[in-house]
Design a protein that fits this description.
By secondary structure, the chain is α/β, with parallel strands linked by helices. The chain contains twelve helices and eleven strands. The chain folds into two domains: about 50-195, Rossmann fold, CATH 3.40.50; about 200-270, Helicase, Ruva Protein, domain 3 (Orthogonal Bundle). The chain has helices at about 10-20, 25-40, 60-70, 90-100, 115-120, 135-145, 170-175, 185-190, 205-220, 230-240, 245-260, 265-270, and strands spanning about 50-55, 80-85, 100, 110-115, 125, 150, 160, 165-170, 195, 225-230, 265. The strands form four sheets. Strands 2-5-8-1-9 form a five-stranded parallel β-sheet. The chain has a two-stranded antiparallel sheet with strand order 3-4. The longest helix has 16 residues, at about 25-40.
């Protein structure tokens, strides 16, 4: 990562904007916001900015943070392409990411650009990057280092300019040690290696997030404002939240819609599972 000093004005502005989307007052949440703001301020003039790697358990907010980074970054007016690699059959990841020439893929009569070319000049978010095969890791490294892509069945490299934000819930350092993930690719992706903490380590952020989602759901579904009863607040705090922020959102959405007539949400209405 560059050793350039961050622009203080840029850092303050980015931090203010991230605070509006990445909810939480805990030390862990604040550290995430400060690190990302500092990184973007250091690389505010670079096109594209260096890659970033977001790590953490399922549901901690990696996709949310990636989208926020795009919105406050130098390419906010461009496309944000969210690519969930776990949703692609393994055989289709390469043609979808890198494109293909006629005849290179079964039934392909015409050339097709890949997602990296679709995101040219913009931002691409590669969720679950640890799922890439060794061969595709090599091709991704070329996108980062050479800023080129070569389509499946193609013979020439084509220039591409993308800001890559990657995410994983796997331990890529362990994968590197076991030669399952390229060390050089990990080093390039992890120019900012940011670990998002699980919700169980964020204390009262659980209540802030629950209130945030409750207000949002009421607004979206045109319901009167609701509040949490004291027993509901206690239940929210003691629940382990294995699904992290995503689980909170789902629980609050369910209780908001199922009990749309109630103005106060109780612990019984939350119906949190026992562990």
């Amino acid at each position: 990562m560059s050793l350039a000093e961050p622009d203080p004005a840029v850092a303050r502005q980015v931090l203010r904007e991230i605070e509006q989307g990445f909810v939480g007052m805990s030390r862990a949440a604040s550290a995430v916001r400060v690190q990302t703001a500092d990184f973007l301020a250091r690389h505010a003039t670079e096109l594209p900015p260096p890659p970033m790697l977001l790590r953490g358990e399922v549901g901690v907010g990696k996709s949310l943070l990636a989208r926020l980074l795009h919105q406050v970054g130098p390419r906010a007016d461009r496309l944000f392409l969210d690519v969930g690699l776990k949703w692609f059959p393994p055989a289709l990841i390469e043609p979808y990411l890198f494109g293909y020439e006629p005849g290179a893929v079964t039934g392909a009569r015409e050339a097709m650009p890949g997602l990296f070319q679709v995101a040219n000049g913009a931002t691409i978010f590669l969720d679950e990057v640890g799922l890439l095969s060794k061969g595709l890791q090599t091709k991704l490294l070329a996108v980062i280092e050479e800023r080129t892509v070569r389509r499946v069945g193609g013979t020439r490299a084509e220039p591409v300019d993308v800001w890559i934000v990657a995410a994983t819930n796997e331990d890529l350092r362990s994968a590197v040690q076991h030669q399952l993930f390229r060390a050089d690719l990990y080093q390039r992706l992890a120019q900012l290696d940011l670990l998002l903490p699980p919700l169980r380590q964020r204390g009262d952020d659980i209540l802030l997030l629950a209130e945030h989602f409750l207000a949002r759901m009421c607004a979206e579904y045109h319901l009167p404002p609701k509040t949490f009863a004291p027993d509901a607040r206690s239940a929210l705090l003691v629940h382990p939240w294995p699904g992290n922020v995503r689980e909170v959102e789902h629980v609050i959405k369910r209780v908001t819609l199922l009990d749309s007539e109630s103005h106060v949400i109780t612990a019984t209405m939350l119906a949190l599972p026992k562990y």
